[in-house]
Amino acid sequence: MHVLMLGGDLTASVGGGIGTVARTYMGAQAMHGVRIQYHTTVAAEGSRAHKARTMVQGQARFLRRLTIDPPDLLHIHIADGPSFWRKSTYARAARLAGIPVCLHGHFTSLLDLYRSSKVVRRQMIQRVFTDADVVFALSTDMQHQIGEMSNGGAHVHILHNPCPPDGFDPS
């Protein structure tokens, strides 16, 4: 199986939750035999111009990957704000190419955005979740949030954070 995983910049000097989860999955014994490629959607550091340039380059690389070496599954780590909107374009492109999409939620305030948005934006958020083949939530609370944002139409499962606690060396 070939999985293309999308998320934040793993080379950033400041490590985040998504990066930690992605590294854990890529190094997990359970993934033996699964080819996982990681695709950075935007640089974590640098000027706005640099980030915009890396975002456009990332989208072009992604489209090339879909045509040259399409994955069996697209696993998208999705968060709040610009991350959500940026990664929703990747999800849409994969769906149009017939590639199953898994969304892995790491957001904290997306529900607030959803509730405060006008109808069109709410429908866009809803569609991102309902178009996904599966959505992983980190908690029961997040599962309920996704349920509200998808009007009950998303296939949501709880997948607790696989990251080892601080100070634990799994090797």
Textual characterization of the structure:
The chain has a six-stranded parallel β-sheet, with helices on both faces. The protein has helices at 17-27, 48-68, 81-96, 110-116, 119-131, 140-149, and strands at 2-7, 35-40, 73-78, 101-105, 134-137, 156-158. The protein has one domain: Rossmann fold, CATH 3.40.50. It is built from six helices and six strands; from the N terminus they run βαβαβαβααβαβ. The protein has 171 residues and is an alpha/beta fold. It is globular and about 35 Å long. Helix 6 (140-149) links the parallel strand 5 (134-137) and strand 6. The two termini are 25 Å apart.
Short note summarizing the structure:
This protein is of the alpha/beta class and 171 residues long. 46% of the residues lie in helices and 18% in strands. It has helices at 17-27, 48-68, 81-96, 110-116, 119-131, 140-149; strands at 2-7, 35-40, 73-78, 101-105, 134-137, 156-158.
Q: Which strand order does the major sheet show?
A: 2-1-3-4-5-6
Q: Label the CATH architecture.
A: 3-Layer(aba) Sandwich
Strand portion: 15-25%
The helix content, as a percent range, equals 40-55%
Defining traits:
6 strands; 6 helices; 46% helix; 171 residues; Rossmann fold
List the helices and strands and how they pair.
Blueprint: E1 2-7, H1 17-27, E2 35-40, H2 48-68, E3 73-78, H3 81-96, E4 101-105, H4 110-116, H5 119-131, E5 134-137, H6 140-149, E6 156-158
Parallel strand pairs: 1-2, 1-3, 3-4, 4-5, 5-6
